[in-house]
Amino acid sequence: MTKIRITRRLNIIKITVCTLSIFCFSACSDFLDEKPQSEFTTEGTGEEDLTSKYLSISDAQAELQGAYNSFKDDIFQIENYMANDVQSDNCYVGGDGPNEEAQDLLKITATNSKVNMVWSQYQSMAGSATSVIENTRLMKPESATEQERKQVMAEAKFIRAWAYFDMVRLWGDLPLVLQLIPTITAENLEIWYPVMYPERTPEDKIYEQIIEDLDEAETISYLPSKSSGAFQATKGAAYGLLAKVYATRGKKSERDYGKVIDYCDKVIGEGYQLVDDFDALWDPDNKFTTESIFEVYYTAESPNWAYWTLLKEDDGSVTWRRYCTPTHDLINKFDKEKDVRYVSSITWKSVPYDTYWPADNYPLSYKIREKNSDIILMRLADFLLLKAEALVEIGQSGEAMDIVNKIRERAGLGASSLNREMSQADARLAVENERQLELYMEAQRWYDLLRNDRMLEVMRKHKDQKGNLIFSDLQEFRTKWPVPQEEMDKNTNLVQNEGY
Known about the structure:
It is a single chain. The protein has a domain at 2-228: Alpha Horseshoe (Serine Threonine Protein Phosphatase 5, Tetratricopeptide repeat). The protein contains 20 helices and 8 strands. It has helices at residues 2-27, 29-32, 57-68, 74-86, 98-104, 113-137, 146-171, 189-196, 203-213, 235-248, 257-269, 306-310, 328-333, 340-345, 380-393, 397-410, 424-438, 445-451, 455-459, 485-490; strands at 91-92, 174-175, 200-201, 292-296, 325-326, 346-349, 362-365, 375-379. The strands form 4 sheets. It has a two-stranded antiparallel sheet.
């Protein structure tokens, strides 16, 4: 059946291509002078032996900047928080869109428009990076120095690795496209169809590609070294991404936690430092601190729109239901008297609705405060706590608690230091709890729960605003998202995830 569907699809596309060719030939000669473009990728060459479209290194750098702009798409302004904070026990959905509510209730389906958008934007991000990598690789030697070429490719590989890492955590197996696609014709369609519409590559192979993209010799060595935040791939950011990859890949019992610690140490070794004042991290005018590693830059003239979705109108008012409302479970975990992170992460306002809390005293997420707020996607505290997590797994809970206590001291909880002699089981929970409070609304919680095989246990105990269990019968297949039905319809080689 699948072969029949593919053959029919090929025939339809061939007819379309041939029809377009006849139309183009009979239309105007000026149009024929232009190189045709495929809808599947960037402009092709019309030849099987692809050549670079870049004439100089500035062409490559310009398209690289376009790939960086993927970090300003919906996936990093709201969907990251929907996937990690709303899906978890951190936030209620807040807003009232049915597709978003399905995420909050862990009832997303293959036809959910949000699922399709997130898939499409990550694939576009990876595709943009691949275009930069391959076109730069194919440049004529005289067009750029090897150092210039290698740095552009290294930065693009970091972007692609990030895109596939987020996708593999959400979906598992993925269609992996690492080639440029030439102009599609009736003659070459059968050759390029499997490239354009591939089967899903197994999850472990995706991780292999991510690690290859972050190779120390071919990628990281060509990235700049910085000790404060940057909207750029740096050695610190690449080491951090590798640490997360090794902490996540494969079964928990089989992971190489030594590598997690090594890469966290390499992040630390770049010279980043915790800021003294936690609240300073979220000051819109306090950009690129010593704690920040990878930070998406915004100005009032080129603003984020996440502040509007999460917090307020320009005049400070709240006129409609904002997204990512802190849950009762989350707020109850904070020490409201001592923990400075509480008032820095959550603000209370009067609002015209009482969906989850009383209207006259309603909590809103507060880390993205203004339109010129940068969005910090990586910071040092995350990797200190990830190192603590790995230390617990190799039986060094005392050293792990030293790190956690350092984070707690900055938070104002120094007088209640955690016991270095606690059991491994208790130490695991202590690190998990500290990550939840420290990294609230930084798009970490869902991935943390998945990484540590804790999603089902935690979410089955999660309660709604009335104290009722929401997910007591939650099924394991919800650890993965469904492949968007729209993608299944386009690509007959795709197989749906179990349960959907």
